[in-house]
C-alpha cells in the first residue's frame, strides 16, 4: 500500500507539473496570424506626397518600427493608404489573441535595432530634404485581430508656418525676401514617444521650406521644430532684396511650440515696420486653431 501511495503521489505531481507547464506555455502563445496593420496620419487640409505633410509616399522607402511589448519588427509602408508589410518574413509579429485587444507602439522613421529613439534632432536647413528628415512620428494604441488594425501616428515635432501677406508698398523688395527662423533648439529627448527639448542644447537658426502660397499670401514657409518656448528674442527674421531687415520677437505664449501642434504666423511687412498675427493651434496639424493672438511689433 505504501508503494502504491508513493506512485500515486508521483503521478499527481507529474500531472500538476505538466498542467502548470502547459498553462505557462499557453500564456506566451500567439496566433499563427501575422500582425497586419495600417499607419494613418493626422489629416491635413493641404497634402503633398511626404509623411511630414500627412501622406505616405508608399513606394517602399518609408520604414516603421512596430513593437507589441515583447517583440519588435520593421515594417514598410507599401502604398499611399499606409498599409504596412513586415520587411523580414523571418521576423514577423503575430496577433497575441484571436479575440482580445493588444497594445502596440510604433514610430517613424524606423530604427535599425527597433528600439525607440532616445533623442531626435531636426535639421537646420529644411529648404529641401531636411524638412522631411526632421519629421518624427509616434503611435500607441490598442488593436485587435477582429477589431481595429489602425495605428494613428502623431507628429512629435511642432510645425511652424509663416505667411508673408502681400503689401503693395513693399511688393518689389519682398519678392525674393529671405525668411529665417532664429533662436531655436534643434535637439530634443524622447520620453515615451514625446519630444522634449534638450535643455543642454544651444540655439541655432533654421532655414525653412518654401511652399506654394495660397490666398493673398506673397510667400509661405514651413519648418518642423523641437517643442519649446521662444520668448522675447528674435524668432522670425525677414531680409528684403532692398537690404532691409525686419524681425519679430514673440511675447507671452506666442512662441510656445508644442509637439503635434502648429503655429501659423501671418506677417505683414511695411512702413514703419512689421505686424504679426499669430494663430496657435489647439488641435492637430492642418486644422483650425482655437486662439488668435495679435501682436504689433515695430523694429
From TrEMBL:
It comes from the Bacteria. This is Fimbrillin family protein. It comes from Bacteroides vicugnae. Pfam families: Mfa_like_1. The lineage of its organism: Bacteria, Pseudomonadati, Bacteroidota, Bacteroidia, Bacteroidales.
Amino acid at each position: 500500500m505504501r508503494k502504491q501511495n508513493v506512485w500515486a503521489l508521483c503521478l499527481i505531481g507529474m500531472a500538476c507539473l505538466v498542467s502548470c507547464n502547459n498553462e505557462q506555455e499557453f500564456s506566451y502563445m500567439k496566433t499563427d496570424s501575422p500582425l497586419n496593420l495600417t499607419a494613418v496620419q493626422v489629416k491635413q487640409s493641404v497634402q503633398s506626397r511626404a509623411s511630414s505633410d500627412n501622406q505616405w509616399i508608399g513606394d517602399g522607402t518609408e520604414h516603421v518600427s512596430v513593437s507589441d511589448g515583447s517583440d519588435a519588427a520593421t515594417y514598410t509602408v507599401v502604398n499611399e493608404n499606409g498599409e504596412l508589410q513586415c520587411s523580414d518574413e523571418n521576423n514577423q509579429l503575430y496577433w497575441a489573441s484571436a479575440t482580445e485587444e493588444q497594445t502596440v507602439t510604433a514610430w517613424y522613421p524606423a530604427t535599425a535595432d527597433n528600439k525607440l529613439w532616445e533623442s531626435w534632432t531636426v535639421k537646420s536647413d529644411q529648404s529641401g530634404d531636411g524638412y522631411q528628415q526632421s519629421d518624427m512620428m509616434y503611435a500607441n494604441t490598442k488593436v485587435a485581430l477582429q477589431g481595429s488594425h489602425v495605428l494613428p501616428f502623431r507628429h512629435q515635432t511642432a510645425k511652424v508656418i509663416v505667411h508673408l501677406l502681400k503689401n503693395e508698398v513693399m511688393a518689389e523688395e519682398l519678392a525674393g525676401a529671405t525668411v529665417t527662423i532664429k533662436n531655436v533648439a534643434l535637439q530634443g529627448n524622447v520620453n515615451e514617444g514625446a519630444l522634449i527639448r534638450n535643455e543642454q542644447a544651444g540655439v541655432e537658426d533654421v532655414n525653412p521650406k518654401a511652399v506654394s502660397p495660397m490666398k493673398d499670401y506673397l510667400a509661405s514657409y514651413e519648418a518642423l521644430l523641437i517643442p519649446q518656448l521662444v520668448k522675447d528674442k528674435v524668432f522670425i527674421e525677414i531680409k528684403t532684396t532692398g537690404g532691409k531687415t525686419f524681425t519679430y520677437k514673440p511675447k507671452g505664449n506666442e512662441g510656445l511650440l508644442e509637439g503635434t501642434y502648429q503655429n501659423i504666423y501671418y506677417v505683414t511687412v511695411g512702413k514703419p515696420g512689421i505686424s504679426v498675427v499669430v494663430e496657435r493651434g489647439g488641435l492637430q496639424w492642418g486644422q483650425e486653431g482655437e486662439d488668435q493672438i495679435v501682436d504689433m511689433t515695430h523694429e
